[in-house]
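Thread title: Can someone regenerate the structure for this chain?

I was given the following input by a collaborator and told the matching structure tokens would be attached. They weren't. Posting the sequence so someone can regenerate them.
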Amino acid sequence: MKIGVIGLGLIGGSMAKALSAYTAHAVFGSDTNAQVLTQALADGAIGGILDDTACAACDVLLVALYPGTAIRAVSERAGHIRKGALVVDCCGTKGGVCAALEPLAKEKGFCFIGGHPMAGREKFGYDASNAELFRGASMILTPCEDVPVQDLARAQALFYELGFGRMCICTPAEHDRMIAYTSQLAHVVSSAYVQSPASLSHVGFSAGSFQDMTRVARLYEPMWTELFLNNAEPLAMEIDGLVERLQAFSDAIRSGDRQGLFEMLHRGRVRKELLNEREKQR
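Best answer:
Regenerated them for you:
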């Protein structure tokens, strides 16, 4: 197949590299940074530039951009996407992207499926991309109800070729609700935690738990700002729930409520053990 990758940052660059390294597909790429395009061509990550002519010839387009930019990129190219082509975005939120691009796909005659690769690094940009990034990772797909079965199967097969180990199929709303908890809340907590004045004096007083809690605070602000605001209500609800639980801990500690504190810690340990068991059974 001929595959176009729009956006050659961490995710798009890694997809292009994996496609070129592990498949026989012809890979074309586009990026607003000319230096990135030059480097991707030199690396062999892409075999050509994804101009309008190449776009019209592509069987698949992978869109690795922020939500708003992804919508614009597909909309601007819609007249050059051939009928029957498969378009999959890789945005971290799905509601707005799917609402905008599913009707456009039906109008223009191509197939759009929302996607979200559950893989990443603390670094960002093409220089951080790696053909092995998706090895064993989960790929979330959010097809609308009338997506042809063969197109969904085609998307799944392609992502398995890229190294993904698991496919998760859900609605855009389910995706955004779960991602608010599993990913976005973790980044909010890490960022808030590391901003304590005490963090400036942590050396000699910290070990693994401090590193675990602060790792994802080293984020890329432009991307995460957009993702948080694109998923505002689900994320705000998760933050509110966490604040309530933290307040309960604070109240128990301040009041010397030994039994209440014990029970909250016990519930947390039991929940974590349950999650560990479920992960083993996957």
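The chain has a mean pLDDT of 96.
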